[in-house]
Amino acid sequence: MVILSLVAMLPFGFNMSIDFKGGMLTEVTFQERPLQSAVESRIAALGLGGFSVRPSGALNYIIRTRVLTNEERQIFMEALGNPVVDRQNTIGPVAGAELKSKAVKAVVAVLLMIILFITFAFRKVSSTGLPRASRGVSSWKYGLTAIIALMHDVIIPTGIFVVLGHYIGVEIDLLFVTGLLAILGYSVHDTIVVFDRVRENLRINSEMKTEEDFEITVGKSVSQTLGRSINTSLTIFITLLALYFVGSAATKDFALLLIMGIVIGTYSSIFLASPLLVTFYKLQRR
Amino acid sequence: MRSRKHIYISAITLLLFVGLGYFLVIEERPGARFPFSFGLDLVGGTELVYTADTSNVSDVGGAMESLKEVIERRVNIFGVSEPLVQTESAGLVSGHSVERLIVGLPGVTNIDKAIELIGQTPVLEFRLAKPDTQKIVDANPKASIDELFTPTGLTGRYLSRAVVEFNPNTGAASVGLEFDKDGSKLFTDVTSAHKGEVLAIILDGAIISAPVIVDEISDGKAEITGSFTPTEAKELVRNLNYGALPVPITLSTSQIVGATLGEVALNAGVRAGIIGFVVLSLFLILWYRLPGLVSVVALICYVIISLIVFKLIPVTLTAAGLAGFILSIGMAVDANVLIFERMKEELRKGQSIYQALHEGFSRAWLSIRDSNISSIITAVILFWLGTSAVKGFALTLGVGVMVSMLTAISISRTFLFAVAPATDTPSKKFLFSNGLHK
Question: Is the ipTM of this complex over 0.85?
Answer without folding.
Answer: no
